[in-house]
Fold:
Amino acid sequence: MRLWAACLGVLVALATPLAAQSLSEGEPVIRSPVLSINYDRFFSRSALGKELVAELEAERILLEAENRRIEAELEAEEIELTKARETMPADEFRAAAQAFDEKVQNIRDERRQLALELTEKGDTVRQQFDEAALPVLTRIVRDAGAAVVVDTRSVVLTLDAIDITDLAIARLDAAQSTELDDAEENAPDDAADPEPIDP
Structure:
């Protein structure tokens, strides 16, 4: 009970100097020394986060589909090998069975490595998002005159007034859209008429 009371007291104290500041973008930013953000929602609801997750999910689905196809092929091969046992000499069957076991183990190692690489790519994707998000969050912190941004998942209680999650999503989406527009403008015009060739 005392912990909740203490947290509430701190938040109420911080709420006193809060004031909205209108920026050129037309978005209100709270003036507060402390801001909060739900970083998971920031990642999952932003356009960039959705795009990165979709790409990763597509690769995961493809990997699982390939695993099922390979598994079915190995099962069929195992059945054929079992049937051939009745007509094959014992030494030939042992050699064939050993070769099949080695093949299965090699495939398992390969697929396990691909799964590990996909997991590592997930970490890389999150790092890519963090790098794109940092300048956006830095700008918000400066605009708000804040000293720290805390993740709402790691605090007991926070005020909605200092939550910048939606603002961060809007700012990041806008920044990504601007970068895309700039890239399209600077891209070479493939449709340009070719230079005439002298006969």
